[in-house]
Specification:
By secondary structure, this protein is of the alpha+beta class. The chain has 2 helices and 2 strands. It has one domain (6-80). It has helices at 6-24, 57-80, and strands spanning 33-39, 45-51. Strands 1-2 form a two-stranded antiparallel ribbon. The chain is globular.
């Protein structure tokens, strides 16, 4: 699968995240990470990430790890009910 135009997509995603957060929470975005699974026209699957401009590799790993731990905790809590 061909890698999408990361800069253009990151810019649009960042703007969309900021707009939605501002409408629903009244806050503002400091940093973000998006993890995306996509299927192209040929049926090839791909997985890619994009981040806000100021993200370092360890910031990205930290946010993704935190998200993983939150999801695992929610899954475990859901299994207990």
């Amino acid at each position: 699968m061909t890698e999408p135009d990361g800069e253009a997509i990151a810019s649009e995603i960042g703007g969309a995240i900021a707009d939605v957060l501002a409408r629903h929470e009244g806050g503002f975005v400091t940093r973000w990470v998006a993890l995306v699974e996509a299927v192209n026209g040929a049926g090839e699957r791909g997985l890619w990430t994009t981040t806000s401009d100021d993200m370092t590799a360890w910031d990205t790993c930290g946010l993704l790890t935190h998200a993983l731990h939150m999801q695992q905790a929610q899954t475990i809590c859901g299994l207990r009910h």
